[in-house]
Amino acid sequence: MDDQITKLREMRDQALMGGGAERIEQQHERGKLAARERLGLLLDKDSFQELGALATHHASEFGLDQQRYPGDGVITGFGKINGRRVAVYAQDFTVLGGSFSEVQSHKICRIQDLALESGIPIIGLHDSGGARIQEGVRSLAAYGEVFTRNVMASGVIPQISVMLGPCAGGSVYSPALTDFVIMTRQTSFMFLTGPEVIKTVTGEDVSFRDLGGTLVHNTKSGVAHLAAENENQALELVKLLLSYLPQNGTEDPPPLAPYDPPNRMSEVLNTLVPENEDEPYDMKEVINAVFDENSLFEIHPYYARNAITGFARLDGYSVGVVANQPAFLAGVMDIDSSDKMARFIRICNAFNVPIVTFVDTPGFLPGLEQEHYGVIRHGAKVIYAYCEATVPKISVVVRKAIGGAYIAMSSKQMRTDLAFAWPTAQIAVMGAEGAIRILHRRELQTAADPEQLEQKFIDEYRRKFYNPYVAADVGQIDEIIEPRETRPRLIRALEVLRTKVQQNPPKKHGLMPV
Predict the structure, then answer these.
(1) Beta-carbon neighbour count of residue 39 at 10 Å?
(2) Which entry of 170, 194, 212, 363 is annotated as an active-site residue?
(3) In the 8-state DSSP scheme, what is residue 429?
């Protein structure tokens, strides 16, 4: 018995060392932590319970007889973050480059299954050179097993991917199927085909960073949702993100003890919107003044910056924030911002996070490129997401709400529970200039001074329609409120809506315009 225990301890010690001290040191030289060091920073002290530590690949079949490592390049198990249970897996680059194998798949799938059965979030720490070539089609088939579980867990438990090294080929699809992707600026890369393949096929010469670096996926592709300066910050972002989310889709997010007075009013809001309707302002100033102090946690902060999405708190409760950003492209809606908002709305709905929408948009971005690349289809995603959502929904029209964009941005007709507007709101079918040229085309064609007459018609149109009172008169706006009282109004409204019960018609699934 003593010999058996000694052997077990030796194997465990070997597993703890991954690919060995030399390779761990090489990992440090690259500016990266070892897999177990990462788990130590992410999880509460002494909370990690490992599973599959002694699993190894089938060496006789793959020609790796001399390179057998307990754990086979991935660490899987359970732990706690701020006292809340989570499932985790961390790829170990010191073991065969973290290459994805059949055994890795078995271990990851096992922890995915247990996380789904237990109703707890799952976090993947990715650092891998891709599929293990020696295993051929087995490693490729193994990806499919993981992908299937990503999809089955979608909307049931939060799934977070933290990219801490390279991720290429089929490996990128598992993170892309999860709810949130976090990348580090210097060490993480994601791409389907590497620079060498691209140069061979297309002749293009591109670096790893320009092809699939953190900046690319946070600003251009939208694949990544958050960027971190280093691994420590990336793991802290995971902890912060989880604080806004429930353990699973059957629970509510955990509230914090209130620390900001619920009746606090911000006088600055009464003068924040410029009198000149074409002058920009920063919608984040509105959000920061309304929600609990320093509680805004942006998702996709660098992507489609004409829209704002993120989590915040109202009287300690987690809330999803969706807003147009007039400080960037006048807050116009386009393909990328529509995708950004629609996805975030569906995440909030899946995890029982109420949605508050701040509206200031002149409409959808006109142009040949937008139309040809499907702005209609992408804009429809926002409408679909809002209509589908059954969580409490409140909209606040701050300034412009023109045409189809007014309808798309959580209008009353799309099952929004309460619609507020500031006195500065401008709710109209279309902009004044375009409307006048249609309504008074003949008069303008025959007028002695068409410019003067056009300006007269525009001023009259703005006086009549560029206000929230007509919409309030017909019930499309529930209440016109003073900007400074937005915070207490929202808190009281969400207090009532917290017990809201609404269900969609039974069906296999809807057909969202993807």
Answers:
(1) 22
(2) 170
(3) S
458 and 328, same domain (yes or no):
no
Residue 172 falls inside a structural domain: yes
Count Cα atoms within 13 angstroms, Cβ side, for 317. Answer: 20
- The overall average pLDDT reported for the chain is 90
Pick the catalytic residue: 155, 327, 404, 447? 404
Q: Which amino acid is at 273?
A: V
227 touches 183 (CB < 8 A): yes
Distance CA 470, CA 108 (A): 57
Average pLDDT (294-318) is 98
The answer to whether residues 372 and 329 belong to one domain is yes
SS (H, E, C) 53-119: CCCCCCHHHHCCCCCCCCCCCEEEEEEEECCEEEEEEEECCCCHHHCECHHHHHHHHHHHHHHHHHC
> Is 41 among the domain residues?
yes
Candidate ranges 183-192, 256-265, 470-479; pick with highest mean pLDDT = 256-265
- In a domain? residue 325: yes
In single-letter form, the type of residue at position 230 comes to N
Range of the domain at 314: 267-425+467-497
Asked whether the predicted pLDDT for residue 449 surpasses 60, the reply is yes
Are 292 and 316 within 8 A, CB to CB? yes
Give the pLDDT confidence of 244-282 residue by residue, as tens digits.
999 999 999 999 999 999 999 999 999 999 988 889 999
Say how far apart CA 405 and CA 329 lie, in whole Å. 15
The pLDDT-based confidence of 54 (bands split at 50, 70, 90) is low
Distances from the Cα of 190 to the Cαs of 164, 213, 343, in angstroms? 10, 7, 20
- Helix H or strand E segment including 419: strand 418-421
The total of structural domains in the chain comes to 3
379 and 448 share one domain: no
pLDDT digits (tens, 9 = 90+) for 120-138: 999 999 998 776 766 667 7
Q: What amino acid is encoded at 234 in this protein?
A: A
401 is catalytic: no
Calpha distance 124→96 (Å, rounded): 18
- The active-site residue, picked from 77, 98, 165, 169, is 169
Is residue 203 one of the residues assigned to a domain?
yes
> Residue 174 pLDDT > 90, yes or no?
yes
Looking at the structure, tell me whether residues 189 and 128 fall in a common domain.
yes
Establish whether 169 is a catalytic residue.
Answer: yes
Q: Cα dihedral angle (20, 21, 23, 27), rounded to 10 degrees?
A: 130
Question: The whole model's pTM is what?
Answer: 0.93
Which position among 405, 419, 421, 432 bears the catalytic label?
A: 405
Residue 337 pLDDT exceeds 60? yes
Residue 444 confidence (pLDDT):
78
**pLDDT category of residue 230 using cuts at 50, 70 and 90:** very high
Looking at residue 450, its amino acid is P
